[in-house]
Specification:
It comes from Acetobacter cerevisiae. By secondary structure, the chain is α/β, with parallel strands linked by helices. The protein has 15 helices and 17 strands. The chain folds into 3 domains: 1-125, 3-Layer(aba) Sandwich (Rossmann fold), CATH 3.40.50; 126-263, Response regulator (Rossmann fold); 414-589, Histidine kinase-like ATPase, C-terminal domain (Heat Shock Protein 90, 2-Layer Sandwich), CATH 3.30.565. The chain is rod-shaped.
Length: 594
């Protein structure tokens, strides 16, 4: 018999009996502790829980029944098995003790081998891992009787009758459902009928001539481990067979309790009830432990999910910051490309103003001298010439002022905010900045039929429209250079057309504000029309583009819950970019702003 080390607590035993039990248990490798009474035992539970309690029928401060009741009322201790030791074996006393909550009741005169058998079977239950039943609701206990005609259980208390076992009626009267198994070869938990409770306890006829009861018990133990069930097995043997050898064979086979055929009916039912109750208490305890572990796992998962969400939020913030920097970078790249043309626009009126400064000064000096000399005609002519030169200088200064205002409006940092935007005025500003690049060879045609006001970000025009128009100008000029290189005559006047309309929405209820920008350039090949919005992708020669303009434009339009696509221009033969953003009415704007 293989013995494992477990912690056994002896409670309230007399000194001589405590020493005898300690010696017997220590000899077989158990760790033994003792407590003088029940109160001391419960106080010790705070530091260390025992695996088994051995108590007398009457402790100094309470009865064994009261101790069992207190154990079963506590979730932490109700799974601890209790073995009650009595002076002499009395079936009626044993039945009462088992019904009061004990797991086993043995006489102090019991053979040591059988005593160790019962202790080991109670401790072996701790190793089982039953499959938790859902819910934890009350159900009727189920007992299977494994016997056949001619066996001990079949004729037990039936005076040799060939009718089914009398034990069936006894168990049913005590509230249990009963299953009769007369062919152990057909017993299989895997194929157990759906909706029918599996047995909590199997009462096996170990002396049946039609099958090997010990071999069947061994098969049941292997089956319950494989299916993660926790059935208890009680074996019945012929009178006088409760020997040390039989106890050892039964323990090896997995039997949890042994009785002989002469056992009283009430005591047999009590022994079966004790096994069933023990099994159900352990099922409930382990089910609660599984629930606790599940709750801990869910808490750990929730913590991990919160950490992941925090990481995602941080990554999203970094992405938004990177996108803002990307937009600003693309804007600055656009301004860099415009710098040369704008500088030229500044130089022309500035040089004109500076050239006329001396002329105006000389004319004013002539006028002052003429006034002193009384020559009113000469003074009038000099002042008229000064006025003409000042008027010409004012035109140049106004042009410079318009460029400065446009640059300041374009470089505003609050472009991420939604506000009312005058689309025609914003497009006019963009065209003012792009005028040096467009030159005299590209004509811009605007047909803005949509309402002027649009609730959007300023970047929708400042960044998106400017990038598209600038790219269109680059494409047209590249086409013109290629035509000049091969000596082809210039065709029709190159142009860029900008239109705005209100159209029925395709992805939501309401209307879309649609801006189309088409050109007479070479267009975008169909296999590249989806790639032009990828970051750092460009069709321009190396060193001529960053690949950020259209990628930034795509992000800005997405922020408006809109779309941007490029197709072939129907009439011009170039490219056509179509921007769609939801159009909000005045009431919706106020709601969105609030």
């Amino acid at each position: 018999m293989t013995i494992r080390s477990d912690n056994i607590l002896l409670v309230g035993l007399e000194p001589e009996r405590r020493e005898a039990f300690s010696a017997l248990l220590n000899q077989r490798g158990f760790q033994v502790r003792s407590a003088l009474n029940g109160r001391q035992a419960f106080e010790g539970f705070e530091d260390h829980l025992p695996d088994l309690l051995v108590v007398p029928a009457a402790l100094p401060d309470m009865s064994a029944a009261q101790l069992c009741q207190r154990l079963r009322l506590n979730v932490v201790t109700r799974g601890i098995p209790v073995l009650v030791v009595v002076e002499t074996q009395n079936p009626e006393q044993e039945r009462l003790i088992l019904e009061q909550g004990a797991d086993a009741c043995l006489s102090s005169q019991t053979e040591p081998a059988f005593l160790m058998f019962r202790i080991c079977t109670l401790l072996r239950e701790q190793e089982e891992d039953p499959l938790s039943r859902p819910g934890g609701t009350f159900r009727q206990p189920c007992v299977a009787i494994v016997t056949a005609p001619g066996g001990l259980l079949w004729s037990w208390r039936g005076e040799g009758r060939d009718t089914p076992p009398v034990l069936s009626d006894l168990l049913r009267r005590n509230g249990a459902s009963v299953v009769l198994i007369d062919d152990p070869d057909d017993f299989n938990l895997t194929n157990w009928p759906v909706g029918k409770d599996q047995p909590d306890c199997l009462v096996v006829d170990l002396e049946c001539p039609l099958f090997d009861g010990l071999a069947f018990a061994h098969t049941v133990v292997a089956m319950r481990r494989r299916t993660r069930q926790c059935m208890r097995v009680l074996g019945m043997v012929d009178g006088g067979q409760l020997s040390g050898q039989m106890a050892s064979m039964a323990f090896t086979a997995g039997v949890d309790d042994l009785v002989d055929v002469d056992i009283a009916p009430d005591l047999l039912v009590a022994r079966i009830g004790s096994l069933v109750r023990r099994k159900m208490v352990q099922d409930e305890t382990r089910r609660e432990e599984a629930h606790i572990e599940s709750a801990r796992a869910r808490m750990a998962l929730a913590d991990a999910l919160r950490r992941v969400n925090a990481d995602l939020a941080a990554a999203n913030r970094k992405l938004i910051e990177a996108q803002a920097k990307l937009v600003q970078s693309a804007k600055m790249a656009s301004l860099g490309e415009l710098a040369a043309g704008i500088a030229h626009e500044f130089n022309n009126p500035l040089a004109f103003v500076l050239a006329h400064e001396n002329t105006v000064n000389r004319s004013i000096a002539r006028a002052l001298n003429a006034v002193r000399e009384g020559d009113s005609l000469t003074a009038e002519q000099a002042l008229a010439k000064s006025s003409e030169r000042l008027a010409a200088s004012l035109v140049g200064l106004s042009r410079m002022r318009d460029l400065v205002v446009s640059l300041r409006r374009f470089s505003r940092l609050e472009e991420g905010e939604f506000s009312r935007l005058d689309v025609p005025d914003a497009i006019s500003m963009v065209l003012t900045l792009l005028a040096p690049k467009l030159g005299q060879n590209i004509r811009v045609i605007c047909a803005l039929d949509a309402p002027p006001d649009l609730f959007c970000q300023a970047a929708l025009v400042n960044q998106v429209v400017m990038n598209i128009v600038s790219n269109a100008a680059d494409a047209i000029m590249e086409k013109q250079r290629e035509q000049e290189e091969v000596g082809l005559p210039a065709g029709e006047e190159d142009r860029i057309e900008i239109t705005s309309t209100l159209e029925p929405a395709t992805t939501h209820a309401g209307q879309d504000y649609v801006i189309r920008i088409s050109d007479t350039g070479p267009g975008v090949p169909q296999d590249l029309q989806e790639r032009v919005f990828e970051p750092f992708f460009t069709t321009k020669p190396v060193g001529s583009g960053t690949g950020l303009g259209l990628a930034t434009a795509y992000g800005v339009v997405q922020a408006h819950d809109g779309s941007i696509v490029v197709t072939d221009a129907r009439e011009n033969g170039g490219a056509c970019f179509t921007l769609r953003v939801p159009y909000r009415a005045e009431e919706e704007r106020r709601t969105h702003a609030a």
